[in-house]
Write a structure and sequence with these properties.
Strand content: 5-15%
CATH architecture: Alpha-Beta Barrel
CATH superfamily: Divalent-metal-dependent TIM barrel enzymes
CATH class: Alpha Beta
CATH topology: TIM Barrel
Helix content: 40-55%
Number of strands: 10
Largest sheet: 8 strands, parallel, barrel
Shape: globular
Number of helices: 11
Strand order of the largest sheet: 1-2-3-4-5-6-7-10
Number of domains: 1
Distance between the termini: 29 Å
Length: 296
């Protein structure tokens, strides 16, 4: 009997075989299989019959961008996104300059990897700072500084609004509406948004905001919201179907907005990370074709 991990529940659908057309847009974000090295993640993605992978800068840096690109090309994969840039909210001028330098390097890496988008995590409040409005203004200023550099290199910047539980330490931009208010200050071909079900499923009026986003949706990332939340809320992401999110309704809205890109599964969860990565990918594929793909 095939079971899903980490729940151990019987699988409701068969594991899609490599070449199954339903997998054409499914992408594995590296963090979902955190135990795999970059080489292993590439090989595991290919073995599962997927055509796309979402990369993180740190594992890429361990092997070098040139090697990573060569491995991706050899495997015949797309890079759906590179994570991450951002963290723009420091109030100290030297820290802000360092953040911009890091983001310019990230833009260069995105271009070299031919990734679909550079994901920007806005950043939280600096230590001892309670000026939320000021931190959000610094995000806008940083994006404005980076846009010409990104445009020259053909890189699209995707602002990722984050669930409000992370406003203090990771993401002062909490809603899709707020992210679009920033993105719309710049050309659509340069700046858009990352739509992540974990961060946005709760947002009142999110369907209207997805319609508003239109071609500014640069990435669609999925995972579930599970309860009770773990002590470390960063690890609160669950496998699709294990929590509370209505993937059919959400995915229909993303599709209706015109999004035709990859659908990236990004899960931070200790139990998922402890499970055999190949079984995680198989469960991910089953849940995707059951809960998400029919509504694209």
């Amino acid at each position: 009997m095939t079971v899903d991990v980490p729940s151990g529940m019987p699988a409701k659908v068969e594991t899609p075989a490599p070449g199954d057309p339903r997998l054409a847009r499914l992408s594995l974000n590296q963090r979902t299989t955190a135990g795999w090295s970059l080489r292993e993640a590439i090989d595991g993605t290919r073995a599962a019959g997927l055509d796309s992978i979402g990369l993180w800068r740190e594992p890429v840096a361990e092997v070098g961008v040139a090697s990573a690109r060569a491995w991706i090309d050899s495997a015949g994969l797309r890079v759906s996104s590179l994570c991450r840039g951002g963290f723009f909210t420091a109030s100290d001028p030297a820290e802000r300059a360092a953040a911009l330098a890091s983001n310019r390097a990230a833009i260069d890496e995105t271009a070299a990897l031919r990734a679909g988008v550079l994901v920007l995590v806005p950043g939280g409040l600096p230590p001892g700072d309670r000026d939320l409005a000021g931190a959000r203004c610094r995000v806008v200023d940083a994006v404005a500084s980076l846009v010409p550099y990104a445009v020259e290199r053909g890189v699209r910047l995707g602002i990722e609004p984050m669930n409000p539980i992370y406003a203090a330490d990771r993401g002062v931009v909490s809603t899709l509406a707020q992210a679009l208010d920033i993105a719309e200050q710049f050309p659509a071909g340069a700046v858009g948004v990352v739509v992540d079900t974990f961060h946005l499923w709760w947002e009142p009026g999110v369907g209207a905001q997805l319609a508003r986003a239109g071609d500014r949706i640069l990435s669609y990332q999925i995972c579930d919201w599970i309860t009770p939340l773990p002590a470390d809320t960063l690890l609160a992401r669950g496998m699709m179907g294990d929590g509370h999110i209505d993937f059919a309704t959400f995915t229909r809205a993303v599709s209706a907005a015109g999004y035709q890109g990859d659908v990236e599964v990004e899960i931070f969860n200790a139990d998922v990370w402890a499970a055999p990565p190949d079984q995680v990918v198989a469960t991910m594929a089953r849940r995707y074709v059951e809960l998400v793909e029919p509504y694209l």
